[in-house]
Design a protein that fits this description.
22 strands; 2 domains; elongated; single chain; three-stranded antiparallel β-sheet; alpha+beta
Length: 261
């Protein structure tokens, strides 16, 4: 009887984790380049009373055995890197990756992080950086005399100078891909860090080696679908309630046993 209490408790904990993941997805529905997550579960150990195939008599075996499960646990929270819908901004420094890849940016501690959020700004020193001051790598520096900027689909960066009608190239944007992007570690601020699971970063020009192209003047929306998340929340809530009912039923059965004379 006590076993059912613990089993139902693991179910409630699992559904709580499921709700936490859904809440984070919904909270980031308007976050540029955000990738929704999905909680994945697996069953726990089994109490085996009779092994499947164990002999039950002369010339007979148990076809199924007797195994009683002990509950569930959260095995993983996986990121879904499906492309988000584009959002037109007409800001010349807003860049969207149409396809696979990440922008590499340098953190203040010198480490390189990766992002799908292309809302870049021109910093006080002219370098292209994100809203937190992390500089895009390789560095793109705009002179103060630049009157216009153009980012090509293949990552070429050109500017217009006052009194000159010919665009001048000042750099090349490069993207980075990973063998297993779901293995990246989220560190907040729309940034990811590589891990042993993600594999090593593979850098190249946009449009080459499976990397996406660059679209100027637009951003990638979150890939969270509100309808799917709401349906998932309802299912999670009902599963949580059902597990709580199991605890109540187990408690009533224990109460009945304690009332025996």
């Amino acid at each position: 009887m006590i076993r059912s209490l613990n089993t139902a408790a693991t179910g409630m904990k699992a559904q709580q984790a499921n709700m936490d993941v859904a809440a984070n997805n919904i909270a980031n529905v308007s976050t540029n380049g955000f990738k929704k997550a999905r909680a994945e579960f697996e069953d726990l150990m089994y109490h085996t009373q009779v092994e499947p195939g164990a002999p039950t008599g002369q010339n007979s075996i148990s076809p199924t055995g007797v195994q009683v499960g002990l509950g569930v646990k959260t095995a993983a929270v996986a990121k879904d890197f499906e492309q988000g819908t584009p959002k037109l901004t007409n800001n010349p420094f807003d860049l969207q990756i149409s396809g696979n890849g990440f922008f590499p940016v340098q953190l203040p501690n010198g480490q390189i992080a990766y992002t799908r959020d292309g809302a870049f700004k021109r910093g006080p020193d002219g370098r292209l950086q994100d809203r937190n001051g992390n500089v895009l790598q390789p560095e793109i520096t705009f002179p103060s005399s630049a009157t216009g900027v153009e980012f090509g689909a293949a990552g070429q960066v050109s500017i217009m100078l006052e009194g000159n009608i010919t665009p001048q190239s000042i750099g090349q944007i490069q993207l980075v891909s990973f063998v297993n992007p779901a293995g990246l570690k989220s560190i907040g601020q729309n940034l990811f860090m590589p891990t042993n699971s993600s594999g090593l970063p593979q850098q190249g020009n946009p449009g080459q080696n499976g990397l996406g192209s660059i679209a100027q003047g637009q951003l990638e929306n979150s890939n969270v679908n509100i309808v799917d998340e709401m349906v998932g929340m309802i299912t999670t809530q009902r599963a949580y309630e059902t597990n709580s009912k199991v605890i109540q039923a187990s408690d009533q059965m224990l109460q009945a046993i304690n009332s025996l004379r």
